[in-house]
Design brief:
This protein is α/β, with parallel strands linked by helices. It contains 9 helices and 7 strands. Bound molecules: nicotinamide-adenine-dinucleotide. Nicotinamide-adenine-dinucleotide (NAD) binds at residues 12-13, 15-19, 36-39, 42, 63-65, 90-93, 113, 117, 139, 141, 184, 186-187, 189-192.
């Protein structure tokens, strides 16, 4: 079960955290994995790790916020592989702030990576999926489902990803393309460590513990736990699932009362 033999999977942001865990797992399950990232060193680490374990991974340096770059990267992958079967829109960036103290520049930056990045990857990939079907999986967040303090721009982007998920699922159902999303609560990745170092210097451990405790289950998720759900949703075993969002949150959205 959950085998991806013969499939080509494109994972954005595969150089770190959740994307890295997905690249390792998808490759272990037989997929040829293409990692798209702006961080060459992280992505090459992931690629080498996959290949060291007998998997098959490639890296293409590309910023998902640049439509031209995404189009030519997808064209390159299709010319190497013939098709793309799985697209995981995972790359994303965080931001702290409310509607008053979020700058227009930060708002635009979040929009350009977290929202337009998904648009660019989907619009470039879908024409090559249409003839034989495929799977698109988007990474959103509990920020798309509940109000989180000081996540104005971030929540805006993740709400948009949820909306795009439904729209894509509807439009491409007739082409046998399934589209779903995953909404994690906090996952312990460099995303969280970087955010703590930037926003709570000197208080990182205290804030880490506080953030961990906001999940009723009492800890953050491990990237591998998200990757397992992603694998299921991208596998043929999930062939009846489209247009759905899956919170994976240690009880965060339903049990925090
Ligand atoms: N970690 C969490 O607590 C958490 C919770 C909910 C949702 N998410 C979402 O999961 C996804 C992955 O998060 P993570 O924690 O693994 O993050 P991470 O920061 O560890 O990894 C993100 C990767 O995306 C890459 N990236 C950033 N901007 C890019 C761009 N413009 N083009 C290409 N690559 C780019 C980074 O270089 C990095 O390798 C994000 O969309 C994030 O919003 C994370």
């Amino acid at each position: 079960m959950f085998k991806l033999n013969g499939k080509t999977a494109l994972i954005t942001g595969g150089g770190s955290g959740i994307g890295k865990a997905m690249a390792l797992l998808f490759a272990a399950q037989g997929a040829k994995v293409y990692i798209i990232d702006i961080d060459s060193s992280g992505a090459l680490d992931t690629m080498n790790l996959v290949n060291l374990h007998g998997g098959n991974a490639h890296f293409k340096k590309c910023s998902i916020s640049d439509q031209q770059q995404v189009n030519s990267t997808v064209d390159e992958i299709v010319s190497e592989r013939g098709s793309i079967d799985i697209l995981v829109n995972n790359a994303g960036i965080s931001h702290i702030g409310n509607a008053e103290n979020t700058s227009t520049e930060d708002f635009d930056r979040l929009l350009s990576v977290n929202v337009k990045g998904v648009f660019h990857a989907v619009s470039a990939t879908v024409p090559f999926m249409k003839n034989k079907g495929g799977v698109i999986l988007n990474m959103t967040s509990v920020a798309s489902l509940v109000g989180l303090p000081d996540r104005f721009a971030y929540s805006m982007t993740k709400g948009a990803v949820l909306g795009m998920t439904l729209s894509i699922a509807k439009d491409y159902l007739k082409y046998n393309i399934r589209c779903n999303s995953i909404s994690p609560a906090r996952v312990h990745t460099p995303f969280v460590d970087g955010f703590l170092a930037k926003n709570y210097p000197g208080n990182e451990q205290e804030m880490f513990n506080k953030l961990a405790a906001t999940q009723p289950i009492g800890r953050m998720a491990k990237p591998e736990e998200i990757a397992h759900l992603a694998l299921y949703l991208c596998s043929d075993e999930a062939s009846f699932i489209t247009g759905s969002d899956y919170p994976i949150d240690g009880g965060f959205t339903r049990l925090n009362n």
